[in-house]
Write a structure and sequence with these properties.
The chain is mainly beta. The chain contains 2 helices and 53 strands. The N and C termini lie far apart (49 Å).
């Protein structure tokens, strides 16, 4: 795969008294095989218009196209001939992903339409856009596809496009244009990812092809039982399960998970091998369709998609977990998951890395310990590394230490998020830390949380275990603080302290927060804030909220680009917090 990267390089400066020195240079975010081009960064023509949320404006009380867009902005194409163009930065571009919004159908359910893709002024192909898996409405009854049931959200959907003809040369102009065939009234182009996708992989030596067991790579018949036969033979023989290029349909006839526990399952690549889950549209009871990873499993190099249209696990129209992991010593890598619920990762010494998650109905990646005692769901030393998630229906990245309804579930320890990118969750936070011991969150890029915060640090509800120790360092947070109530900020820290707890937040960059840069609340907190840089917040740089108690140690934090009347530190605790310098 072409070694194009989408990682930002940032110099972090720490203030030492009156001297400002370059402390270190670090990278934030995942190394990815594509380059993202924002819609608003393109060149408009034919009446195309940039729409953006301006930092400092009042945050709306509901979801908007601007808040859900990466970068907080997009390019609007309304009239015929409206277009947006970019110079292609990728050598040998042969694939792209378009993140865009088009209207819902009048009564819900979405539409399908097309845009023209033009290269160097010459028409190349039509690209299909759909809103059949976007546009949900949230009200008292939960999530629905019925526009009368609540406020609209989840405006965007991602479309994977393989470029026809010769690869597009670096430096060529690529254009998306609304032509006469464009049935949609408008197109909102959030961003595109351009890349040089590697050719399909070849079958490894000493492996078993699922096709030889009856699996259908054309996607016309259900392949779940055939793949299960291949897995059973692999468990006996110790061989790898090979899923060649193609689309494999599962879950249209079988109401249970595809269990890949204990074997190595490998596809021909994220652009080439697809597992498509298609539960029936109408059924009674509960229909499960996730892919289950167990001890000593290695799952890699494929794409997982689903026909779900709303958040309703196991119910009509709803999906299931993309991947549900448990047991010990499992590895999930280079898997692209779209239109599924959360990726629910539990167990001991498991790692999910170099994966892509898009348009999920739940958390992008959730490291957890289940909700009741289970030796396969201990939540110990779980790691998420170098993953890229965008457009999630709950937290982009999360760890949740759950005591369970009877409070007899063990505590999580050692959850680690390193060098991940989380962009534009349409619900909840870009990253959530909910309880745990020895949690590490380092060098992540966290942008454009529509509903909540860039990072939220604390516990979760009545059943959550307390947060005992965490280090949050080297992260970059941009445009945090969404529409879901006013207590949403770039970073939010709020928890009830326990004896010996220690929360360390250091050397992070928080930029363009829609409210405060860092907001602090809770009881008996023990917090260290050092070396953080807050720039251009819409409210205070650091806010200590009312009724907060405990101690906060402040060292070397810098707040810049304040507006008239703003302050670097606003302490509303009324003396409840002891500030140490």
């Amino acid at each position: 795969m072409n070694a194009i990267v989408n990682r930002i390089r940032i110099s972090v400066y720490i203030s030492l008294c009156v001297v400002c020195i370059a402390a270190r240079i670090h990278a934030a975010g995942a190394l990815v095989p594509f380059i993202t081009l924002e819609g608003e960064a393109g060149t408009p023509a034919g009446g195309a218009v940039i729409k953006a949320f301006i930092i400092g404006d009042e945050v709306p009380a509901k979801a908007t196209f601007e808040l859900e867009a990466s970068g907080g902005a997009y390019m609007l194409l309304e009239q015929e001939g409206a277009q947006v163009s970019w110079m292609n930065p990728a050598e040998g571009m042969n694939a792209m992903t378009i993140r865009a919004s088009i209207p819902d159908a009048e009564n819900g359910g979405g539409i399908e339409t097309a845009l023209e893709l033009i290269v160097d002024g010459v028409f190349r192909q039509y690209v299909t856009l759909r809103s059949t898996q976007s546009w949900v409405y949230r009200g008292k009854e939960g999530w629905s596809n019925d526009p009368t049931k609540g406020a609209a959200m989840k405006f965007y959907n991602e479309e994977r496009v393989k470029i026809t003809g010769e690869p597009v040369k670096k430096g060529s102009t690529i254009t998306l244009r609304k032509g006469p065939s464009g049935a949609a009234v408008w197109y909102r182009i959030d961003c595109i990812d351009v890349e040089s996708a590697a050719p399909a992989g070849v079958q490894p030596a000493d492996s078993l092809s699922a096709v030889d067991f009856g699996a259908d790579p054309a996607g016309e018949k259900d392949s779940q039982e055939a793949i299960e036969r291949c897995i059973a033979e692999a468990r006996t023989s110790g061989k790898t399960v090979w899923l060649p290029a193609g689309t494999f349909l599962i879950s249209s006839k079988k109401n249970n998970a595809l269990d890949v526990g204990g074997v190595t399952v490998r596809g021909a690549g994220m652009w080439h091998t697809a597992v498509y889950r298609k539960p029936p549209a109408v059924f009674t009871g509960v229909w499960r369709s996730n892919i289950r990873v167990g001890s000593l499993t290695r799952l890699s190099d494929l794409f997982i998609d689903c026909n779900s249209v709303t958040r309703a696990i196991g119910k009509p129209g709803g999906g299931d977990y993309g991947i549900a992991a448990g047991g010990s010593n499992w590895i999930v890598e280079r898997v692209w998951i779209q239109h599924c619920d959360a990726n629910w990762m539990s167990g001991t010494d498991g790692v999910i890395r170099r994966c892509r998650v898009a348009d999920s109905w739940g958390d992008g990646i959730n490291l957890n310990n289940g909700n009741r005692p289970n030796p396969d769901a201990l939540g110990l030393r779980l790691r998420a590394e170098e993953n890229f998630v965008r457009g999630t229906g709950d937290d982009g990245l999360a760890t949740y230490s759950d005591a369970g309804g009877k409070r007899d579930n063990g505590k999580m320890s050692g959850s680690t998020f390193i060098s991940n990118t989380s962009v534009a969750p349409y619900w909840a936070n870009a990253l959530r830390i909910a309880g745990g011991i020895d949690v590490v969150v380092r060098d992540n890029l966290l942008c454009d949380a529509s509903g909540n915060c860039g990072i939220e640090i604390g516990t979760f509800g009545e059943s959550g275990h307390p947060l005992e120790s965490v280090v949050v360092e080297g992260n970059v947070i941009r445009r945090g603080g969404g529409w879901n109530t006013v207590n949403r900020h770039g970073m939010s820290i709020g928890y009830k302290g326990v004896p010996g707890n220690r929360i360390v937040v250091r050397n992070n960059i928080i930029e363009d927060s829609r409210r405060a840069g860092i907001a602090i609340s809770g009881d008996s907190i023990n917090l260290v804030l050092e070396g953080n840089r807050v720039s251009n917040p819409a409210a205070a740089g650091i806010l200590i909220r009312q009724n907060t108690s405990g101690a906060v140690r402040l060292s070397g934090n810098v707040v810049t680009n304040l507006r008239p009347g703003q302050v670097s530190l606003k302490d509303d605790s009324g003396g409840g917090v002891r500030l140490e310098y």
